[in-house]
Amino acid sequence: MTGNPIITAVLLVLMSIPLTRSRAADALPSWNDGAAKQAIIQFVTDVTTAGGRKFVPAAERIATFDNDGTLWVEQPMYTQFVFALDRVKTLAPQHPEWKTNEPFASILKGDRKALMATGEKGLVELIMASHAGMTTAEFESLVRDWLAKAQHPRFKRPYTELAYQPMLELLAYLRANDFKTYIVSGGGVEFMRPWTENVYGVPPEQVIGSTVKTKFELRDDKPALMRLPEVDFIDDKAGKPVAINKFIGRRPIFAFGNSDGDLEMLQWTAAGDGARFEGLVHHTDAEREYAYDRNSSIGRLDKALDEARERGWVVVDMKRDWKRVFGESFGSQGEVLRPTGSVSDRPGSSWQGLTTNSVPGKN
Amino acid sequence: MTGNPIITAVLLVLMSIPLTRSRAADALPSWNDGAAKQAIIQFVTDVTTAGGRKFVPAAERIATFDNDGTLWVEQPMYTQFVFALDRVKTLAPQHPEWKTNEPFASILKGDRKALMATGEKGLVELIMASHAGMTTAEFESLVRDWLAKAQHPRFKRPYTELAYQPMLELLAYLRANDFKTYIVSGGGVEFMRPWTENVYGVPPEQVIGSTVKTKFELRDDKPALMRLPEVDFIDDKAGKPVAINKFIGRRPIFAFGNSDGDLEMLQWTAAGDGARFEGLVHHTDAEREYAYDRNSSIGRLDKALDEARERGWVVVDMKRDWKRVFGESFGSQGEVLRPTGSVSDRPGSSWQGLTTNSVPGKN
């Protein structure tokens, strides 16, 4: 601060004017004016206004976001699941036994029903076969290489282009207001870290996710971390507040999810003292993206939707609240879209569509 | 950047001058001039000099520090161990069975030898009895309250005043050069987070440590995280690179430890590409602090010392390299010190001195 008392006074006055609101009008251009956008701007203005009743010091401005269905598309299958299926196909020639062993036999035959019938046991075997038995560095290369080639079956785009533009703007707006933005996802942390910084502006150390166990080894005298075929932690549901506490050690003041898997994270966020923001993305837009909630096996939004309405959490209606869903590269939205119907009301649809190229039809 | 090409050119020239070296002379006032200090300054200058061969972008400047014996005193007992013993004494009236059950009986009798004889099983029971069965918020209060009262048996100071002044300066110097400083400790993460920001300037989200399992619960409709009597992860030895990968997702370029428990962290750091710094604090100063290495059961420095010498890692000789060990509040160093002898060459000394007030004598 300068030594001149008049200049000091002017600066103090200027500093106390909340600039956030006017800046925000430009910071969230893909959001339609409405309750959701207003609630976001109001909250950020409140916690950043020095001297205000709801002010929160910058160090405590922790914001946590779910990933699948909150920051990028999760339908018709979680991207990581598609990666796992593709990996099995790539590895199949080295595993002749997979022709008869489940869940691999069904994957290789493209038999969706039989694959689904292998249940959780099948899912775990699939993830372990596709995600373990290599070093962390090798796995990172596999993810990068796959993402560079894979395309979403409906949008015919790399998955990393299927981040929601309004959410990218929200992440940037929060960071511009000195929030630390975290991802807290059920997805594998090492599946996300190779691209979250480029796509979301979220660095690896702010990505929290599910993990397999790893083991430190010296290979030819060179240290390596081997990914073991053993689950370490599932970062979903009640695991999310556990992970937030373990990794961040502070309670978020702002959290965004889209499914029942995010309920406990939102409850944990809401239970803190002072100003709080809890948000849900509600997928209501079958034309531009997908429409699903209570009956979807991927991203089921049921209990959390009830609780959000009871407690006044912000529910973003994708169709109503978002001016556009994806970024500029999509051109006028709708152009690339050939809606294949809503995936809601399709229980058990999570393992549908076994290839990245097939567009799942209606059941 | 301004639009004026001459001013732009001048700014570019100014920006390319490595200011780090001259700033550092003041940034590390408690370090004696010598090889260790020079190596630190050289490294920081190298990785921050834009355009230089060893330049590292700010986002990748990750520095990891062990805690016990690297940033604060770990003799004659780990501080957290003293906390656990005190906690047992406080809880004893509610546990009449402890009068006969080990390891509690020996703790309550102050019988060091018998306590040591309970071995790892005893240690785990002690930690579980003293560290679990409460919410994370309750545990944080216990730690804060204890630290406010407890005193180190020799220095008669709160433990939080026993941070090494030269290391505090090093942490600040790194941060001033856009490093992100992390603690990676075998100690409990929730034992450290309540005070690391005040003492070290390291925020909770940059503290990695050992953990017990926690469970999300609704208590009277209010979410809480219960600390369970079950080990989740031991962040020591080969666990350190595992944790660094899990929590940070980037390899450090700078790491500091003081014992064999830090060897794998240093190996992992050293194995990355580009400029690297690995450092060890060698406790050589029985007068101002303690002198111990190969034969100490606390902070044993044996294999890592050999490897450091082989590979040219920086070994800080506390006696020679540090102008002062503790902060200003200690006055002229030595004043408060009544050396009770070196603890080196005392195998099995880790459980000695069962009360915070007793000064352990020579064996």
TrEMBL record, chains A, B:
Enzyme Commission identifier(s): 3.1.3.3
Which parts of the sequence are annotated with region: Disordered? 336-363
Regions of compositional bias (Polar residues) in chain numbering: 341-363
Gene Ontology MF terms? L-phosphoserine phosphatase activity; magnesium ion binding
Its cofactor is:
Mg(2+)
State the UniProt keywords alphabetically.
Answer: Amino-acid biosynthesis, Hydrolase, Magnesium, Metal-binding, Serine biosynthesis
According to the lineage, what is the superkingdom? Answer: Bacteria
GO process annotations (BP): L-serine biosynthetic process
Which leading EC class covers this enzyme? hydrolase
Pfam families linked to this entry: HAD
Q: Which reaction does it catalyse?
A: O-phospho-D-serine + H2O = D-serine + phosphate; O-phospho-L-serine + H2O = L-serine + phosphate
Give, as in the UniProt entry, the pathway in which the protein acts.
Amino-acid biosynthesis; L-serine biosynthesis; L-serine from 3-phospho-D-glycerate: step 3/3
Q: What GO cellular-component annotations does this UniProt entry give?
A: cytoplasm
* PANTHER family reported for this sequence: PHOSPHOSERINE PHOSPHATASE
Q: What is this protein called?
A: phosphoserine phosphatase
What organism does the record attribute this protein to? Pedosphaera parvula (strain Ellin514)
